[in-house]
Amino acid sequence: MRRWESMGLEGSQVFPAALQPGAVVGRWRVLGTLGVGGYGAVYRVEPLDAPGRSFALKLSLHPDPARALREMALLLDRAWHPNVVRVHATGRWPDPVEGLPYFVMDCVEGMALHTWAETVNPTFRQVAMVGGSVAMTLGVLHARGVLHRDLKPEHLLIRTRGQVPVLIDFGAGDQTGATTLTTTTLPPGTLHLRSPEAIRFQQRHWRQPELRYPYSEADDLYALGVCLYRAVTGHYPFPPGQEPELLSVAITERLPPSPRGINPQVPETLSRAILRLLEKEPEQRPRTGDAAHSELMRGLLSGEAAEFEAHLFDEIPGTPNQIRRPVWPDQPYLTPAPRPAPAVVVPRRFPTWVWVAVAVCLGLLLAGPGTWEVLFRGWTRHTTPEVLETVSAPVGHKLASAPDRPHSVPVAALATAASVVAPKKEEPSPVTTKPSVPPSPKIGRTLKTAAIASCMAGMACASAPLVDRPTPPAEDCPEDVRAVMKKLKISGRQWSGVFDPSTSDAGFVTVREGRAAVYTQGGEGRVQWGSMLTGTIYVGSKRVYGRFTQLRQKKTGETFPVCIELWFLDDSTRGVPRSEGGDENTAIVPNLMSVRSVWRYDE
Ligand SMILES: Nc1ncnc2c1ncn2[C@@H]1O[C@H](COP(=O)(O)OP(=O)(O)OP(=O)(O)O)[C@@H](O)[C@H]1O
């Protein structure tokens, strides 16, 4: 055992995460605790030889000193900046050679950005200045190859004197040329501050844990956008506390309400500048910290200057320093993020409008009564399309090669579905139902479906209590089928799928146990986009499981035996989570899932 692990000092036990006032670390005396995080404990200290002066001492709590040493090195060298906390001394404790690393820095007298916003209730001018200043600081650090990688309101302290932002906690920081300390796909961080591209990377490479996400300047700028959104609205654009999979979908696929939509006092240009930092595609964001700074400051110089003098929030009359936090809407994510259009080359023998008209007519004809119903009744109602053919499993000959498309997850789960209709109980199999029966006008059902819709739009869903059902038993994937999956280049791969391909932003589908089909979204390996997977759906009490044994290529119509099952984004459990409603045999699920090829159906 290394000496510092026992921490037995003069017979009494010492806990590095809970040092008491009076404890001595090196030549520093502890005065109190400033914060305890996942990696370190930060204490207010004074020098033994100059009492009365306050500093902050961060003591690493991690057995591996590498992270703490990296943080110290960054702060002492490349991350040096007037808006970055300054380090004065370093050491190890209790043993000066083998002990826990610590460093002593300025004690920032102030508050974290979000607390400052809600306690001091500054003006929009002050917030824009703070945001601009952080953006410029990031610009300088990025130019030196330094990335913060864990920017959040708690790591942006606003110094009381001068209302100046100070960046702290470079524990996850990185610099070009340094060997990576990250042992996971993404660096340590918080989901609601992760950029859409980081989440997409993780979803795409879940089977390659050795891969590391190439964190970039654009990720830091995105996180700055999240911090500023929180400051001016009192809410995160994608609030934490939701199911991680829904939060991931929201971050990657939905547009947050504009800051001005939440807090009407936010000046238009500031609101827009914050949204620009939150763009889904990194290339749509300001490219550098300096560019972000210009956008954040633009309104101060324009005709809007007066609006910037307003304070962020209304104060509650009679209760000084108590602000009224703007209301977060029940259905915040009404707008899907625009997707980059796939590059489809259409031979232009006819004018474009002819193609559009033909496509619309065909679409309406093929989509059937459900679509007409949507058009005429204004309902968004989806049930899974019927499986039209029985499955045979001849191995295809030609392998069509489709270019890799970026991973995309449909936004079904968060759409503004106004209605979900469960099929009638006596309806025969197949599993999936056709949208042929108009929704029942019964008030009870309407209320229930509205509740589901608002539940998903607000992303807080409760499952109905159901009898526990066993998950389907394990099954091996035959060896010849594995060989086919290898040829198709989908071994161990996961990509997206939908139950109902006729809609891109539907809410839910109702599925019934039995045979079913899903449609791939995105061409993984040699699977063509929109190909059909047929197999069996099992309805569990909390999740719906799917095992698919045949793939029919969308363009060529070739069929291949496969072993593919349903997952939901980067969930660690198989299946797709059920939404409220349904019964033992039918379930309401988002029209969104991942399909994953497997060697064994219980991997
Ligand atoms: N220089 C400082 N001056 C004042 N307070 C500080 C200072 N450094 C850290 N703190 C306080 O201590 C808290 C924890 O610090 P820090 O984030 O560096 O630790 P951590 O272990 O890396 O935490 P986390 O796991 O949250 O990232 C901060 O949120 C802040 O409130």
TrEMBL record:
Top-level taxon of the source organism: Bacteria
Ranges for region Disordered: 423-443
Secretion signal, residue range per the UniProt entry: none
Coiled coil: none
Annotated residues for binding of ATP: K58
Pfam families associated with the record: Pkinase
Enzyme's top EC category: transferase
Residues annotated as domain Protein kinase: 28-296
GO MF term list: ATP binding; protein serine/threonine kinase activity
E.C. number(s) listed in UniProt: 2.7.11.1
Record keywords, A-Z: ATP-binding, Kinase, Nucleotide-binding, Serine/threonine-protein kinase, Transferase
UniProt xrefs under InterPro entries: Kinase-like_dom_sf, NEK_Ser/Thr_kinase, Prot_kinase_dom, Protein_kinase_ATP_BS
Recorded family membership: Belongs to the protein kinase superfamily. NEK Ser/Thr protein kinase family. NIMA subfamily.
PANTHER family named in the record: SERINE/THREONINE-PROTEIN KINASE NEK (PTHR43671), SERINE_THREONINE-PROTEIN KINASE NEK2 (PTHR43671:SF13)
Protein name: non-specific serine/threonine protein kinase
Organism: Corallococcus carmarthensis
